[in-house]
Amino acid sequence: MAKIISGKELSAKLKEEMAAQVAGFPEKYGRVPHLVVILVGDNPASVSYVTGKAKASETVGIRNTTIRKPETISEAELLELISELNSDDTVDGILVQLPLPRHISEAKVIETIAKEKDVDGFHPLNVAALWQRQPCTVACTPKGIIKMLKEAGIEISGKRAVVIGRSNIVGLPVAKLLLDENATVTIAHSRTANLAEVTRQAEILVVAIGRPRFVTADMVSEGAAVIDVGVNRDPETGKLCGDVDFAEVEPKASVITPVPGGVGPMTICCLMENTIQCFLSKKLSKGE
Ligand code: NAP
Q1: Whose Cα sits closest to atom 6 in ligand 1?
Q2: Can you tell me which atom of ligand 1 is nearest the CA of 191?
């Protein structure tokens, strides 16, 4: 039986530690960090993510402003809003909830957010810095995954890690972070031949595909650490489920993350950490 890594419990512990840290900020710096979240439209999943971010901010003691804009907002108006927030000294972090309506370029939006306020770690300069091992804001989900592996006592160095998925927000950065921890990393994707053969080599398997219960027991080696990033609706029950068939894989894995309650809460937790980091970097650069 695998040890289940609860992202819910770990994130609660980390948020408590951050709350204690932030409580000292008003005296030290005169204010608390300020995160602005922009939500375009009313996609239910996005509304729920944005609500989760506001709730976590409250727990940690971070000021959260959620700006809601209608689906019809033009790209130019949205970019203008971001530019205003970039030059607002009271704002430390800016996050635009993705996905955006088709008429708005996500790439342009991400590029417009100032690198120093990019709490998502999606800005090309942050991405480039990550690949060059320079100081940067690391994307929240990959950062949370490494924290979970460490919390579970998994030694990453020297291990064979397989990441399924190569998106800019999960697959690629998580592979880079595993590499930086000295794992030997294989990145698999939709064109990978004999995927099960590849994944069975993994001592650490990270799955970020977006397909319900895609990874079955025959794809996992005995004793592997399995991190399930996927968030899907089970086609049969309509409930949330991951990319990994939890019931099948859990008996084989040494550790495994559940969905819900695994990587998701850690992503939000790392967003709080990134907001604090952006706030402190700004204070440091001003010599405060
Ligand atoms: P994405 O951009 O759609 O990327 C999916 C990746 O999976 C692609 O690289 C794709 O390969 C690969 N893939 C698709 N079908 C495959 C198959 N049959 N065999 C092997 N690889 C396959 O998705 P994403 O943004 O990375 O998100 C992945 C999942 O994680 C989604 O369920 C998303 O909701 C979830 N997610 C969760 C969190 C969280 O906080 N828990 C955060 C972000 C994302 P190609 O590159 O070849 O197309």
Answers
A1: 165
A2: 47
CB 262, CB 7: distance < 8 Å: yes
2 confidence band (pLDDT: 50, 70, 90): confident
| Ligand 1 pocket test, candidate residues 176, 190, 228, 234, most atoms within 8 A of CB | 190
Confidence of residue 19 (pLDDT cuts 50, 70, 90): very high
- Please report the sign of the dihedral spanned by the C-alpha atoms of residue 224, residue 225, residue 231, residue 237: positive
Q: What is the residue with the minimal CA distance to atom 22 of ligand 1?
A: 190
Supply angle C-alpha 246, 262, 36, rounded to 5.
145
Higher pLDDT, 91 or 287: 91
Q: What is 29-115's CATH number?
A: 3.40.50.10860
Q: Where, residue-wise, is CATH 3.40.50.720 in the chain?
A: 140-264
Q: Is the CB of residue 273 less than 8 Å from the CB of residue 14?
A: yes
Q: Which residues of the chain form beta strands (DSSP E)?
A: 3-4, 34-40, 63-69, 93-96, 160-164, 184-188, 204-207, 225-228, 232-233, 240-241, 255-256
The three-state secondary structure class of 118 is: strand
200: CA distance to ligand 1 center in Å?
A: 19
pLDDT, mean over the chain: 97
Q: What is the pLDDT of residue 288?
A: 78
Around ligand 1, the residues with Cβ closer than 6 Å are 141, 164-167, 169-171, 188-192, 195, 208-211, 229-232, 263-264, 267
Ligand 1 atom nearest to CA at 192: 20
Catalytic residue IDs: 53, 97, 120
User: What CATH fold (topology level) applies to the domain 140-264?
Assistant: Rossmann fold (3.40.50)
- Does the pLDDT of residue 178 top 90, yes or no? yes
Q: Do 181 and 160 touch, CB atoms closer than 8 A? A: no
pTM over 0.85: yes
